[in-house]
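Dear U.,

For the methods section draft, I wanted the exact inputs and outputs in one place so we can describe them consistently. I've listed the two proteins in the order they'll appear in the manuscript figures. Please don't edit the token lines directly; just add comments below if something needs changing.

First protein:
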Amino acid sequence: MLALSCWFVVFWCFLILFLHSVSKQNKRIFYTILELSPLLDSSNMTPEDWAKIHYEKYDGFVILHGTDTMAYTASALSFMCENLGKTVVLTGSQVPIYELQNDGRANLLGALLFAGQFVIPEVCLYFYNKLYRGNRVTKVDAGSFNAFSSPNLPPLANAEVDITINWETVWRANTKKKFRVHTNMNRNVGLLRIFPGITAAAVKAFLQPPIEGIVLETYGSGNAPNNREDLLEELKKAAERKVVILNCTQCLRGSVKTVYATGQTLADVGVIPGGDMTPEAALTKLSYTLSKSKLSWEEKRQVNISVEADIKCLILFVSQELEAVRDALIPPLACAAAKLGDIDALRAIAEMGGNLSCGDYDGRTPLHIAASEGHLPLVEYLLTSGATVYARDRYGSTPLTDAIKFSAFLSVLPDDCFFNFSLPPTHNYMGWLHGSACLWISSSCCSGCQQFLNGSFGRAIYWSFPCCIVLRNGHSTEYKSYQLSKFNFKTLSLYSLGDS
């Protein structure tokens, strides 16, 4: 018992040192631990539990989860987290962390490392030294530390002696829309596995209302008996009732293709080929798609579009030597192009497979540079090309804070965002005349706006631009709200709202 306690002490001391140390990227990450209440076994997880995420407060997330249903949660979150711009990593362990021999410590530290040090704006799953795309994994082993596999997509990253990230495979958001969690998942979905001798009565019972969609797990490349008219008739009737039937293979690796007559027969009765999606991804995507009330029936049938088509993932196969040269040259070239406002040059870099979120020696990305220089068309191009607004340079600045600092522009925020400004309660106001301005954030519309200014309630934010401040009786009261998209900081004039 004493030896086990010593192991606990050593581990937690190491964890504390890890959480407060400076990484190779010269970053110190601050971690907050939040506990789900009540605690749940992963077998008891439901769609309602998938939606509990505190997105606005943090730059990255690690979710500790039981392994039994982790692939379902990772797949579901990948669809529910719309317009995701931050790193979300799920991890767990095959053996409890309090056991002397366990995989929990390594998995936890690896997940903390990826979530804190790298901007990989996806829902990921980290296990046994590998970082996977969340909607590509499935649990393949109940008795091994190497419990998960991504059969149809290579890992996003490998954490061995060196950390290798396959940036060409990492998804990048191509939208400026605000992050939101879609919580209204459709639960009238299910998995139906074809097996030799399955009865038409069993299929008919499974397809009865209120079922709205099923994942049909078939043989090989999507095959089922084509001499069973009773089965085909039940599937056809369900499809005519607008039940979405998605065909996925029972095999661990491979894709559904209508190569054989037994596969084409299913397509003829209205079954939709599911490509190479895992059953977990197919089920959760079906639940997500069917819950979209604004989509038409034909649009919902497009659920068979592959995960890669959804995220427009580009995979380039080049030699290690060319990758090394490219990775070394692209950061300074991309930042130089951003400095000049040269969109064509950045397009050429992107076409070569370059990462437009790469940082230079100071960690400054092309979006940092473009925001600082006020190149609005270039900023819009970078945002729609997947550049992240959450990357921090060595000084802790993001592209958003640089836009403020260098008096550039603020139109990258949604139109409905605003801040309430006031002058600090105690200050030598006359010292501000015809010089730098200092405004006090008294309130804002959302926590995202607070993070935009890299501040919080009660913190003064400075800009260097001409400012005229009219005082009345030596003091000032709170100012009205401003729509940021219409707010010109370069010609800002503030007037006291004191007694007239």
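Second protein (the one for the lower panel):
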Amino acid sequence: MSVIEKCYVAVLAIDIITVVGRRTATTRSLKLCSCYNAPYGMAGKGDGEGEGNVLKLENQILIIKYVILFTNIIEWMIGASIFALCLWMRFDPGIGTILDKLDADTFYDGIYVLIVASIIIMIVAFVGCVSALQESGIALLVYIGTQVLGFIFGLAGSAVLLDNSARDSHFQPRIRESMRRLIINAHHEESRKSLAEIQEGIACCGADGASDYLSLKQPLPNECRDTVTGNPFYHGCVDELTWFFEQKCAWVAGLAMTVCFFHVINIVLATILKSALEKEEEQSEAYRK
């Protein structure tokens, strides 16, 4: 069996195994074996060297393609998880009740951004699979652009969410102000019920502790006391609510940051794949001359 025949059989086997790609098995085989412009038995420049280089590059392209497909499947699954968690946090009645009573609806800003980011992530993952299978330079450029967009939204959503839920963030002063306002207006039925629901539900007392009632010259309510010991709860509602929301937001922010990491990886892989495809075309053209 001649070198040309061996080349034809090897490339044809690769195409049958991989199934996907932008060229048919016959087309790729003819291109690599220079059967377009050269008569049978006449190899291109470098005899078998050109064939080996093109085949080696083709194998590298296949590996990059499958890595991109694998990372995009993971990315889509994480994006769907972020979408589900954000919807749950947005429409959870317990969270909504607490935020309404504390006038802290800005907590939802990060949720809204991450909902948009999760939708972008799922679309980007689909575009990534299609662009990798088509091996299209234009599709890969679109894919890189959507990856950058997804990275920006994911990073911004995580930052806004943590800024409205974590310790030492803008969330704590807002809770402190709302709690002190409710304590001052505790003689009103609505404020008293709101305080009772928050302090009993979270097991906290005042904004920063029972001392808030003393400093604001208000009586200490029973909701501020432990039902077993009768002592006031040690921690204030600012700390307890921060820990409460921080635990719920940590998973969402962590998943969003993980996807951002995958975005960076996929941008690099897509750039390498685009360069490899261009190089493959150049080598194929040079080999046929």
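Candidate sentences for the figure legend, describing the second protein: The chain has one domain: 68-275. The CA atoms of residues 131 and 140 lie 5 Å apart.

Thanks,
Y.
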